[in-house]
Amino acid sequence: MPAVSHRGRGRRTINEINMVPFIDVMLVLLIIFMVTAPLITPSVINLPTVDRANKQPDKPIEIVIKSEDEVQVKKDPSQGSGATSVPFAQIGKAAADAQGGDENRPVVISADKAVKYETVVKAMNQLKRSGIERVGLSVTTTGTK
After folding, report:
1. Per-residue pLDDT tens for 2-43?
2. What domains can you pick out in the chain, each with its CATH number?
3. Does the pLDDT of residue 51 top 90, yes or no?
4. From CA 110, how far away is CA 113, in angstroms rounded?
5. C-alpha distance from residue 25 to each of 18, 32, 36, 64 (Å)
């Protein structure tokens, strides 16, 4: 029923919208959002950080993946040369041969940034199938603050 005004000569209806229920609903919604917002966790992946290792392993075998077609195995990465090119399918056999029976000698994979992640995972899988347990990834470290 519209409100009636008694001013003037006759009765006139006042055509106004009552804002009180609207404001009440908005305040309730605001309170609901304020209470639930801290409970919602954003989908952020917390990746582990790396620092410099205390001691570098003794002469790891380095597998350099420049592309899926070009793979090199270095028995002694401290010497710049001495890399043997092998087909991608024979990474595991070449690394096992480079270990020379020393199963504790680690194998480090160095892959170019442009190489697909899938290629690196396939290389790690081949190394694991060949019985090599100590497999790592070579990365460059940035200065820590």
Report:
1. 555 555 566 777 788 888 999 999 999 999 999 998 887 665
2. 3-39 (no CATH), 61-137 (3.30.420.270)
3. no
4. 10
5. 13, 11, 17, 64
Beta-ladder partners of 83: 74
95, with CB counted inside 10 A (0-12, 13-18, 19+), is buried
| Residue pLDDT, tens place only, 96-140 | 888 777 777 888 888 877 888 888 888 889 888 888 888 888 777
> What single string gives the DSSP state of each residue in 112-138?
-TTS-HHHHHHHHHHHHHTT---EEE-
State the residue for tokens 């087909």.
87
Burial class (CB in 10 A: 0-12, 13-18, 19+), 94: buried
Helices 91-99 and 117-129 cross at an angle (nearest 10°) of 50
* Higher-confidence position of 28 and 82: 28
